[in-house]
Design brief:
It is built from 3 helices and 5 strands. The protein is an alpha+beta fold. The protein has one domain: 6-pyruvoyl tetrahydropterin synthase/QueD (Tetrahydropterin Synthase, Chain A, 2-Layer Sandwich), CATH 3.30.479.
Amino acid sequence: MTALKGRYRIGKHFSFDAAHQLAGLPEGHKCARLHGHTYTAEFVLTSQDLVGPGFVTDFGDLAPVKAFLDEHLDHRVLNEVLPVEPTSENLACYLAEWFMEHIEPGISGCLEKVRVSETPSSWAEFEVSRP
């Protein structure tokens, strides 16, 4: 095996459909009206070491993320289910916090960031800061 030093990184994305509207925008702004998106949430994990047979973490161990999204966010009005204004930035942070509390303790990799896309051409990202 190589003597290179570095970090391994994996990512998995999940999609769900939801609606939202954003408060505090100028009158007539299209995002102030109730509208929907097909969201994509990408979770990026990292590790310096691999676990058998050579994984950061098994992608199958991320299945609970899909279950959470399906149960709590899919085909919902995000304003009604999120504790924060439903921007992509806030959604990325919300999903990172949920992941770190519910998934990360049981897997070998560490969450590095969550990227949320509302459209194929736009995204927002929350990067986890660790001591």
